[in-house]
């Protein structure tokens, strides 16, 4: 009964998002008020229009069809794959994307049922995923991060490799989980993934090298974005560096971030390779969490994907009550809205960064609401890799 009520509430909120420019979630987020709704999805629609006309998908010139859009930042194959959407108007195409994401969400929830068991643990996990505030934001802005990480999770839980190939082509960061597959000795899967990526990208890169440069700089050299819409660990570090006058860090910020990111991934790969914990789900979750912990452009909607990883960690065997309490605490904190609505009294969409006039402590309050659950999942997964519990041979391994 509880889960049925949650599903009804979930569908009601989704209907509000799909049918209104200012849905019920509008006052709750920086990106609902101060960013353009659907603009991330419209970036893909605009890119599809471009390639249908023989233009670069990264050409930002108005196309006369797409009402507005942010810059396209995905592989060219995404623009070509989106061309069938041009049979629909931009709003109708966005609505179809909502249906796709909703399908992935419910598939994920049902896929979690077997490893979590017919228990309150599954019901609570499903409830938090269905009522996740970052997930609703993801729908509103038309983003793809939840879909990518949910596809990675489904590739492990079902398993069905096609989900993973689709995730890698949509956003390349899932490639970070390949060391976890390598630990399992899944060479064929790794080689197939790289082959699929090469076939989808090399022809475009060869014929349009400038496009490859744009893609690389946009995704692998992110700059700026450290404003009220950022909810990442690096945003917290930057706040501390500014307030504590760590000028040497600020002067060399880009280089320090790059080094920290490289070292974090190297350490995680070493842990995954040497750990006695051989569960694919643990290694994959830790590596994906390392991405979110060290990436500069982590927005609130990214937490919809982080929560998927938290749910995956709950499927591991031999969890203690303390482990479950800690992971459910992370899921709950991540799913709840931040106090943003209380700080942003004016709610003026014309303002890009409303936090400029706010008290300084507000920045810490907001970012910690999402940094804490992210770090809970990441540090817990690292600890589990470093000191895994003894699991009997009869236990099922994911």
How would you characterize this protein structure?
The protein is mainly α and 398 residues long. It has one domain (15-386). The chain is built from 20 helices and no strands. The chain has helices spanning 2-19, 30-33, 39-52, 76-81, 90-116, 120-130, 133-141, 145-157, 161-170, 178-183, 187-207, 209-220, 233-243, 247-251, 253-274, 280-294, 303-313, 321-335, 340-343, 360-386. Helix 8 packs antiparallel against helix 9 (161-170). The chain starts with a helix and ends in a 12-residue tail after the last helix. 43% of the residues are buried. Residues 393-397 have low confidence and may be disordered.
Topology:
Layout: H1 2-19, H2 30-33, H3 39-52, H4 76-81, H5 90-116, H6 120-130, H7 133-141, H8 145-157, H9 161-170, H10 178-183, H11 187-207, H12 209-220, H13 233-243, H14 247-251, H15 253-274, H16 280-294, H17 303-313, H18 321-335, H19 340-343, H20 360-386
Helix pairs in contact: 1-6, 5-6, 5-8, 8-9, 8-17, 9-11, 11-12, 13-20, 15-16, 16-17, 16-20, 17-18, 17-20, 18-20
Helix fraction, binned, reads: 55-70%
What's the structural domain tally? 1
Distance, first to last CA: 30 Å
Encode the helix/strand succession as letters.
Answer: HHHHHHHHHHHHHHHHHHHH
Task: Report the mean per-residue pLDDT as an integer.
Answer: 94
* Low-confidence regions: 393-397
Number of strands: 0
Rg result: 21 Å
Structural class: mainly alpha
What is the number of helices? 20
């Amino acid at each position: 009964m509880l889960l049925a009520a949650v599903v009804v509430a979930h569908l009601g909120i989704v209907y509000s998002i799909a049918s209104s420019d200012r849905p019920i979630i509008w006052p709750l987020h920086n990106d609902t008020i101060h960013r353009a709704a659907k603009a991330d999805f419209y970036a893909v629609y605009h890119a599809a229009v471009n390639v249908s006309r023989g233009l670069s998908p990264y050409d930002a010139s108005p196309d006369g069809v797409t009402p507005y859009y942010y810059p396209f930042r995905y592989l060219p194959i995404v623009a070509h794959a989106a061309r069938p959407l041009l049979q629909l108007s931009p709003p109708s195409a966005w609505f179809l994307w909502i249906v796709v994401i909703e399908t992935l969400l419910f598939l994920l929830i049902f896929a979690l049922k077997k490893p979590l068991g017919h228990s309150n643990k599954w019901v609570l996990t499903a409830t938090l995923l269905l009522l996740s505030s970052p997930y609703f934001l993801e729908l509103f802005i038309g983003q793809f991060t939840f879909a990518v990480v949910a596809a990675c999770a489904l590739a492990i839980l079902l398993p069905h490799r096609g989900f993973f190939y689709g995730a890698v082509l949509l956003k390349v960061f899932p490639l970070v989980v390949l060391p976890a597959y390598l630990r399992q000795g899944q060479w064929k899967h790794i080689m197939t993934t790289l082959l699929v990526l090469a076939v989808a990208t090399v022809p475009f890169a060869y014929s349009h090298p400038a496009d490859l440069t744009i893609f690389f700089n946009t995704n692998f050299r992110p700059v700026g974005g450290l404003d009220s819409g950022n909810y990442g660990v690096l945003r917290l570090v930057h706040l501390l560096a500014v307030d504590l006058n760590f000028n040497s860090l600020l002067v060399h910020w880009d280089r320090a971030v790059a080094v920290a990111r490289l070292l974090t991934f190297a350490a995680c790969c070493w842990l995954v390779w040497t750990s006695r914990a051989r569960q694919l789900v643990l290694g994959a979750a830790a590596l994906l969490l390392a991405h979110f912990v060290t990436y500069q452009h982590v927005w609130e909607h990214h937490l919809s994907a982080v929560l998927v990883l938290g749910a995956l960690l709950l499927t591991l065997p031999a969890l203690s009550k303390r482990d479950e309490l800690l992971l459910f605490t992370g899921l709950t904190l991540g799913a709840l809205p931040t106090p943003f609505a209380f700080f942003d009294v004016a709610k003026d969409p014309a303002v890009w960064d409303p936090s400029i006039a706010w008290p300084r402590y507000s920045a810490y309050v907001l970012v910690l609401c999402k940094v804490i659950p992210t770090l809970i999942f990441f540090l817990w997964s690292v600890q589990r890799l470093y000191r895994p519990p003894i699991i009997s041979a009869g236990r099922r391994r994911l």
